[in-house]
């Protein structure tokens, strides 16, 4: 674990937009072939029969076959984040540390946050994160209440870009491209009209609640559509590498989002598996 704190003042996280910046953590990975990648994870806090547990959620494809990996957090001071601070939590056996969704076709994985907080605290490094309450996960009924065209916001590290001085992710927005309440191609997914680049894997996607009460987590970015040389369009996992996936392939501004109900399913499966 490596701390790179800079002498900065705490920054007041006092608006929903500011909180968006601290829902996510940066994922950095190294592959067996020597390649490296960057992606996005986010933190969800979930109440269950035994209490409340916070989890780190990202895409399955981002953690599969990774030799070494780490999560990068901001540091906390007096309950607020220190801008420009960062603490890298290196996880041994990174790929094996994640619990995958029970359906192999669902591109999600999770691990508990508390061991990471404890390990950092033992080194005198309190971590700052703003968990998303699982009550804000949009279920099927909530998504049905949304219109076919809605504005969406998502947070992450497109093409590995972030504010390196202040250690902040990038906020982006777009619109739904298919109705969120309808299962795209028969799967619990929908499309967004937004520029989704490598590094956007695992980005949480938010939509304004139908009653105007705040933001709902609508889903997780998992794939982007490519135009191939044959002019055929095909979805593929958002690559962690900043290199193009294949010669002759061109990304278009359509991203595939796994609906938030799959995140809830994953949390429940983890709790059944590890807590009985």
Summarize the structure.
This protein is mainly β and 276 residues long. Helix content is 13%, strand content 40%.
Key descriptive features of the protein:
eleven-stranded mixed β-sheet; Peptidase_S1_PA; Thrombin, subunit H; mainly beta; 276 residues; Trypsin-like peptidase
Structure report:
This protein is mostly beta strands. It has 5 helices and 18 strands. The strands form 2 sheets. Strands 1, 2, 3, 4, 5, 6, 7, 8, 9, 10 and 11 form an 11-stranded mixed beta sheet that branches. Strand 15 (204-208) and strand 16 form a beta hairpin. Mean pLDDT is 88; it is low at 242-248.
| Share in helix | 10-25%
CATH fold assignment of the largest domain: Thrombin, subunit H
CATH superfamily of the largest domain: Trypsin-like serine proteases
Please report the first level of CATH classification, the CATH class of the largest domain. Mainly Beta
- What structural category characterises the helix and strand content? mainly beta
Q: What number is the mean pLDDT?
A: 88
Shape: globular
Instruction: Tell me the distance between the termini.
Output: 31 Å
Low-confidence stretches: 242-248
What string gives the helices and strands in order? EHEEEHEEEEEHEEHEEEEEEEH
The tally of strands reads: 18
CATH architecture of the largest domain: Beta Barrel
Strand content: 35-45%
| Number of domains as seen in the coordinates | 2
Computed over alpha carbons, the radius of gyration is 18 Å
Number of helices: 5
User: Main β-sheet: number of strands, strand sense, barrel status?
Assistant: 11 strands, mixed
Pfam family, one: Trypsin_2
Protein name: Trypsin-like peptidase
Organism: Tepidimonas ignava
């Amino acid at each position: 674990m490596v701390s790179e704190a800079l002498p900065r003042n705490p920054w007041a996280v006092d608006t929903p937009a500011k909180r968006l910046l601290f829902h996510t953590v940066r994922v950095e990975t190294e592959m067996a072939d020597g390649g490296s990648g960057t992606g996005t994870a986010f933190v969800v806090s979930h109440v269950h029969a035994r209490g409340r547990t916070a989890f780190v959620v990202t895409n399955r494809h981002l953690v599969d076959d990774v030799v070494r990996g780490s999560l990068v957090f901001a540091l906390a001071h007096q309950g607020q984040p220190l801008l420009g601070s960062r603490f890298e939590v290196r996880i041994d056996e990174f790929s094996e540390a994640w619990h995958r969704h029970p359906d192999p076709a669902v591109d999600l994985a999770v691990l508990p946050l508390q061991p990471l907080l404890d390990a950092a605290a033992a080194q005198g490094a309190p971590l700052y994160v703003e968990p998303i309450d699982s009550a804000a996960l949009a279920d099927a009924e909530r998504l049905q209440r949304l219109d076919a065209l809605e504005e969406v916001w998502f947070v992450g590290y497109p093409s590995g870009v972030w504010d390196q001085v202040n250690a902040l992710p990038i906020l982006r927005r777009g619109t739904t491209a298919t109705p969120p309440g309808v299962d795209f191609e028969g799967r619990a997914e929908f499309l967004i009209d937004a520029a989704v680049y490598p590094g956007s894997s695992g980005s949480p996607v938010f939509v304004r609640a139908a009653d105007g009460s705040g933001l709902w987590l609508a889903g997780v970015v998992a794939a982007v559509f490519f135009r191939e040389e044959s002019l055929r369009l095909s979805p593929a996992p958002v690559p962690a590498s900043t290199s193009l996936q294949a010669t002759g392939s061109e990304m278009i501004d359509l991203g595939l989002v796994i609906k938030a109900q799959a995140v809830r399913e994953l949390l429940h499966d983890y709790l059944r598996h590890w807590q009985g």
